[in-house]
Amino acid sequence: MAKKAKFAFFSSSSPKSLPSSPSSFTSFPASPLSQNFTQSSMEEAVERAEAVIRKWDPNTPSFTKIVSLFNHSRKEAKEFIICVRDLRKAMHFLVSQDSQSPKLALAQTLMQIAMTRLEKEFFQILSSNRDKLDPESVSGQSSISSNSEFEDIMQSDDEDEIKKAGESITQVEKASAVVMSDLKAIAESMISCGYGKECIKIYKRIRKSIVDEGMSLLGIEPYKGSRFHRTDWVTLEHMIKNWIRAAKIGVATLFRGEKLLCDHVFSASNSTRESCFYEIAYEAATNLFKFPEFVAKEKKSHERIFSLMDLQAAISDLWQEIEMTFHFGSVAGVKSQALSSLQKLKVSIHSALVDFESTIHKDSTKALTPGGGVHKLTRSTMSFISSLSKHSRVLSEIIADHPLPRNTGSLESYIRTPVTEDEERNHALSVHFAWLILVLLCKLDTKAEHYKDVSLSYLFLANNLHFIIETVRSTHPRDLLGEDWLTKHSDKLNAYAANYEIAAWSNVYMSLPEEPTDLSPEEAKTYFRRFHTAFEEAYMKQSSRVVSDAKLRDGLKVSIAKKLVPEYREFYRKYLPMLGQERNIEMLVRFKPDNLENYISDLFHGTPILASSSVSLSSSSSSSWMSLGCVSG
């Protein structure tokens, strides 16, 4: 915003629109001070004004070569403003006493010269002090007095009155305050003398160019819907990120700064400051808030939901500032445009949520995960849900406006009961998240049925449910779903693990005698053969299974070992001595208890280490599934 706009410098001749005859002042309301004016004091005021004003008349030989009165000497600038004030009072007096007075004609001429000079000064201050009047400097000021700076300047006898502002503000803020005071003094002087039109025209022209330039520097261009249809999503995502940054600066700094400056310079007239701010900011601000609406109208897809939510959050975060800055009736259209964008974004975000759920339902991939590991649908869905949960504030508003049209009573029974107002607002969102996970679980149940081995199906379900639980437990969804949800699904996980053990290892468990009993050597040999065959078959099948999570993997190993190793150790200790005289005993008794533990410890990595050509890899048919009341998908 430091670039300076180039404007043609104003001519030193009097503007054509300025009042040209004393009769122009007959419509002015009579000043109460004119009653105290005497003929002599009136003449003194005109004479004093003539001496000061003609000094700064560029058309006289005595004209000083100093370009700017206010930059040259603030003391003389104050004197000039005071003379204009007194000249105005004298003209009111002359109009009421003798409208044909030669003194009135002289006063009118002096007033035209003074207004030409002030118009030039107003332009110069606006155009040469852009660094002191940039929106960041103006909006950063802790306070801007609503009192008349015009009067303050008139009453000040000290040329360094800026020092009176105190040392609590920076030098930049002090310089900015001085420039703003000068502008306000000139504006009030010109408006009070009937020359406000010229002053306002200059102000609107220069400040609008600054706002437009600021928007351009922020990367904001005039938006048209047709452009978005031709823009790929990667480019659009970049534009969204830039827009969010630009909107924060635009609203909180650029437009706020312009509003404060406009309110300050034209504080004497509500209609003037409203008109000025409208001309300066309305077009740029309305265009700014068209962008989110155009984005929201693009093709709905759940992959785009995060950018849409970022846009909505940005507007929501700025809403208080938007309302404060654009509270005038003339600029209410800016708020309407921002509100329209918010509503369009909400609809688009909801459509993206529906698309996400539909994507889970429609997933038709039949490729089985090797070893019963975590399915890519589980990973992608939980990653998406975890990311969604970070936008709970935005989503809670969406879900409140678009509640689930399904029967979710069973879900609400184990979602934490809301206590505070915030929890009540998030309750519907919690139910929605639980619903999305239920849709995923039911889809996983369907996929598990494609495994021909029952134990592998249960291991697949255990792997995926464990992944879901751990994702919820370690990320934002935990705050939404609560401990009851985690407990219920942990119980479900335990059931899957138990069913896996039964399906995969029951033949091994049953290959040993059920009750402690005395066996003959032949019976002992039979049990050893049965156990070794069952273990080899189970091991070869289960060692190709995969459990990627160390916690779940170790839990399964410990559970299997606790049920198997102690019983086998006791059987081995009791009956091995009975077979001591057997030939090829190592072929009959192939596993020591410690070896058994080693084999079990190597399970679930997908790489068996035991080789046997005698293993029979039989297949089992699928059995019934434990479900949560799944939806069709």
TrEMBL record:
One Gene Ontology term, aspect cellular component: exocyst
Sorted UniProt keywords: Exocytosis, Protein transport, Transport
- Show the ranges annotated as biased composition (Low complexity): 7-28, 137-148
Q: Which residues form the Exocyst complex subunit Exo70 C-terminal domain?
A: 241-602
- Spell out the molecular function terms from Gene Ontology: phosphatidylinositol-4,5-bisphosphate binding
Region of interest (Disordered), ranges? 1-28, 132-157
Alphabetically, which GO biological process terms does the record hold? exocytosis; protein transport
InterPro entries documented for this protein: Cullin_repeat-like_dom_sf, Exo70, Exo70_C
Record's family? Answer: Belongs to the EXO70 family.
Q: What does this protein do?
A: Component of the exocyst complex.
Q: What PANTHER family does its record include?
A: EXOCYST COMPLEX COMPONENT EXO70H1, EXOCYST COMPLEX PROTEIN EXO70
The name this protein carries in UniProt is: Exocyst subunit Exo70 family protein
Which species does the entry assign this protein to?
Answer: Brassica napus (Rape)
